[in-house]
Design a protein that fits this description.
Helix content: 55-70%
Number of helices: 11
Distance between the termini: 59 Å
Structural class: mainly alpha
Strand content: under 5%
Number of strands: 0
Radius of gyration: 19 Å
Order of helices and strands: HHHHHHHHHHH
Largest sheet: none
Length: about 230
Amino acid sequence: MDPVIRLILIAVLSYAIGSIPTAYLISRKFFGFDIREKGSGNMGSTNAFRVLGFKWGLAVQLFDIAKGIFAVLVVSHIFDGEMAFTNRTPFEDQTVICIIAGVCAVLGHIFSAFVGFRGGKGINTAVGMLVAIAPVEVAIIVGIFIVVVLFSGYISLASISAAVALPTSMCIRQNIFSADIQGYQTLVFFFIGLALLILYTHRSNIRRLLAGNENRFQKLWLFRPGSEQRDGRN
C-alpha cells in the first residue's frame, strides 16, 4: 500500500474512533435527552458524572479512554508499510505513527464529526493515548489529578494541572533526575502541544475558576479548610 494512503487511512480511522460521542449516545439511548442540553453542555465524563450519575459517568470515562488506547495500539498497526515521510525524530517509525493516531483520536473527541464538531475536552482520550505511549508520565499525572481533586473538588482544575504536569514531569525526570527517556527531544514538544490543546479546550473552565463560580464536586472534595470542613460550605 502506498505510504501516504496508509497514513491518511490511519489518521481518518483514528479520528473516526475518537469522534464516537459516548456521552451523547448514552444520554439519548438510556435517558431520552441530549447531554449537551444539560449541566455544562459538554460531552466529557465530568458532565456525564454530574448529569447521568456515577455508573454511566464511569462508563463514558472508560470508553473515552479506550478510544485513545485503541487508536494507538490497534489502528496504527492495521496497515503495515513504510512511512509516508522521512522520519527525522529519534523514535522508531511505528512510534511516530502511534503518536499521529493518538492525536487524531483526541481531535476526533474534541471535534466530533457525528455531533456537529462539538465534542468533549479531550482529557480521557488523551489519557488513553498516553497510557500506551508514556506510562510513567501517566502515573505521575494521575497522582496529581487525584490530589488536586481531593484538595479542591474541581475536576477542571485537576485536568488543567495534569495537562501542565505532563511535559513538566518529563523535563524534570530527564534534566534533574537524569532519567534516560528515549526520544525525549521529540516527546517533550509533543507533550507541550498536547497540554496547550487541553488548556484551550478548558478556556471556559479557566474563566469560571478565576471568577470563582466553577462547578465543584462536593463529594470528592475531601480535604477542606477548617471552617468549611465543619459546616460543609464552599
